[in-house]
Amino acid sequence: xxxxxxxxxxxxxxxxxxxxLSVMASVLRSLQIGYHTGNINAPQMVIEEFFNQTWKERFQxxxxxxxxxxxxxxxxxxxxxxATVSALTVGIVADHYGRYMHNSILTANSLSLMAVGFMxxxxxxxxxxxxxxxxxxxxxxxxxxxxxxxxxxxxxxPTRRRLLPPPTGHEIMFSGKFLSISWFQIMSLENVLxxxxxxxxxxxxxxxPAVLQYLTLPFCPESPRYFIINCHEDELAASExxxxxxxxxxxxxxxxxxxEAANLxxxxxxxxxxxxIVPSYKQPILIALILNASSQLSGxxxxxxxxxxxxxxxxxxxxxxxxxxxxLFTIFSLFRSKGQSNTMNGNLHGGAGHWCISVLPISLxxxxxxxxxxxxxxxxxxxxxxxxxxxxxxxxxxxxITAELFSQSARPVAMGLTSSWNWxxxxxxxxxxxPLLHLVGPYVFLLFTGFLLVAVLYTFFRVPETxxxxxxxxxxxxxxxxxxxSDMHPLPAGLEAGEVGSMVGVQ
Length: 507
Known about the structure:
about 500 residues, disordered N terminus, mainly alpha
C-alpha cells in the first residue's frame, strides 16, 4: 500500500512486538559496550603479570614500574581511543547505510567479533599487541553503537510515548552494566575466570550477544524517518512504520516526516565545520561539547580506583557495590520528573561538592599511611554518593542533550562529534590519571573539582530547558542571540509532550 493512499487518522500508538524486538536487539549491542568498559579492571593484576612475563621473554629483563603503569594505562584507554575515532564516522554510517539494517550492523558486529578474536588469542600467542589491538577494535564498535543505538531507538519510538527524554548512549548501556555486574563481573572474579589461565576467555564472553545480534537481524525494521528523509522512499517508510505501530493507520506520522523532508530540501549538507559557523548550530554544539567534556573530566570513571588508595581489602567487591549503586540510580534517572537543565545543574553542584569533600579524606589517608581509619569509610561513603549524583545528572544528560538540540539533518553529525569528544576525554583521563596520581598525589582530584565547578557555572547560565519542547521552539530561542539561554522556559503547565510532537522537528 502506498503512503499516499493511507487514510488520515490519529490512532492510539501502542507498543508492538516489532518495536520491543527492535529495542531488545539494540540492547544486545549495548551489552557488549557495558561489558567491555569495565571487564578489564578486575583481572588487572594477572594481566600485568602477563605483560611482565612476556616482556621478560622478549628482552630478558622485567619491566620497570613506570613502563608497566604506562602500558596498562594505554591498554585500558585504547578502547576509548578507538571509540573516539569511530564516533566521527557515525554521520556517514547513519546516513549512507541506515540506522540499523544490514550494512551498519554487519560492520559493527564484525568489529566486535574481530576484537574478541584478538583478545582471546593474546595469551596463547604471547602477544601484548594482540590485546591492545583487540581493545582498539572493540572501541571502534563502542564508538559507532553509542550513537547509532539511541539514534535508532529515538526514531522508531511512537511520538506520543516520548514522555521521557530520548534514550541515550548512557541509558541504553544500563542493561550492559547490569549484566556486567550481575553475571560477567562475577565471572571476572579471581576465583572464577579472572585468573591467569582464564582471563582471555573472560574478555571474549561478549561474542555471545554478538552472535545473537545476527540472529535478530531479519526481524528488525529500519528507521522510517531515515527512509523518507534520507532515501525519499515513502512506500518503504510506510511499510516499516506499519510494522512498528501494528496498524495500517500511520498517515499522521508519515506526513510529519514528509513535511520535515520538504523543509530540508535545498539546504546544504550539515558538516562538522558548519556546526561551528551556522548561528542556529553554534551555541547548541558548544553546549553539547562542554557538557560531554565535563562528564568525563569529573573523574567519575576513575572513582572506583580510589578504593585501592583507601586500602580496601577486597576492592573488586567494593567496585561491584559501586556498580550496583550505578544501576539503581540509572533506573531512577529514567523516571526523573524535572527538566534536564534543572537536573544537570543540581547534580553537578552535588558532584562538585562531593569531590571537594572527598579530597580531604583522600589526602589524610595517603599522608597518614592509613593511620586514621575513619578516613577510609568516609571516602567510600563520599564515592557512593558521587556515583549517585553522576547517574541522575551529568552522566545521562551529556548524551541526550545533543539529540534534543539538533534537527534530523544535523543530528547524526552532531551526535557523532559530541560522542567522539566524550570518548576522547575518557581516553585522556584513563591514560594520564595514574601518572598524574604518582606526580601530584591526591591533589589530582582538585583538577576534577575545578572542571565540575566550571561546568556548574556554564550549565546555570547557558543550558536551555528542553523538556516538553519541540526542536522548533528550542531552535527559535537559539536564533535570538540577544536572549540569554538561561531565560528559556518550558511550556506552560498542563501541556503534554505528545501535544507538541517529538524533539525531531524541522529547522
